[in-house]
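Hi R.,

As promised on Friday, here is the backbone we talked about, encoded as structure tokens. Could you run it through your design pipeline when you get a chance and send me back a sequence?
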């Protein structure tokens, strides 16, 4: 099973996420690589709470807090008080644990 550290290393050493990864995890990969638009596009491909959580994080990053709050609500998550980066790590841990990166 991939760890968060493995995921972070992947974001630094590969030119794209694995195509078999759960879409919200792929979106996090793009976000970690500064590809906000691509990350946003991937989150919009799936209408699930995990995708909404990543979507909320992306809107926090761009400073659009009202939109982020909307997506937190869709995700069933409270608004994060952590840094954007720390929240991404938390999301990655959740996704890797609950979705085994590939499904």
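Update: got your reply. Pasting your designed sequence below so it's all in one thread:
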């Amino acid at each position: 099973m991939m760890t968060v550290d493995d995921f972070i290393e992947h974001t630094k050493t590969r030119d794209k996420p694995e195509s078999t990864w759960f879409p919200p995890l792929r979106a996090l990969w793009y976000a970690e690589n500064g590809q906000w638009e691509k990350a946003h596009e991937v989150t919009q491909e799936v209408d699930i709470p995990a995708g909404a959580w990543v979507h909320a994080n992306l809107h926090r990053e761009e400073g659009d807090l009202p939109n982020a709050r909307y997506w937190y609500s869709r995700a069933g998550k409270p608004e994060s008080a952590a840094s954007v980066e720390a929240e991404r790590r938390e999301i990655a841990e959740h996704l890797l644990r609950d979705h085994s990166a590939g499904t």
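One thing I noticed while checking it: Residues 84-99 form the longest helix (16 residues).

Thanks again,
M.
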